[in-house]
Design brief:
Elements: H1 7-28, H2 30-37, H3 47-74, H4 81-84, H5 86-112, H6 117-140
Helix pairs in contact: 1-3, 1-6, 3-6, 5-6
């Protein structure tokens, strides 16, 4: 069997994930996240630092969406998955990826780097929401 990847869906997923990250870490949890990270809310970062961060975030989102598209496509080989519709593929891809790759890293960072559990829930929640969003786009837009 051949794995088919929709590159337009990947680009849309990158943009959607970028917007989700901006919303998650600015208006939704921005103040709490900054407080937990120890950032001064009155201090504005240099614009060059912001642009550099956004550039690398887009590159990271592109790599994430491209690899995740392959992961999602691999679910088509699970017996009976095609009869279940899109939602099981979205749920399994997002949850299994989160449980196996994101959650352990978030837990380790919380314990070993002495991060707060509040920061754990903000970051782990973002990763799960991001996985669901991108899985939805990549699964529905074939």
């Amino acid at each position: 069997m051949e794995i088919k990847i929709n590159f337009i869906a990947i680009i849309v997923a990158v943009i959607a994930n970028f917007v989700l990250g901006a919303l998650w870490y600015m208006p939704i949890f921005g103040k709490l996240w900054a407080k937990e990270k120890g950032f001064d809310l009155n201090e504005k970062p240099d614009k060059s630092v912001m642009f550099k961060g956004m550039f690398y975030m887009v590159i990271g989102n592109l790599l994430f969406a491209w690899v995740f598209a392959h992961n999602i496509a691999a679910w088509q080989f699970v017996p009976g998955i095609k009869e279940m519709g899109n939602m099981p593929k979205i749920m399994m891809s997002a949850i299994f990826t989160w449980l196996g790759f994101y959650l352990p890293g978030n837990l380790g960072a919380t314990v070993w780097e002495k991060k707060s559990w509040t920061l754990f829930f903000i970051d782990a929640g973002y990763h799960l929401a991001s996985l669901f969003l991108v899985a939805f786009i990549l699964t529905v837009w074939k």
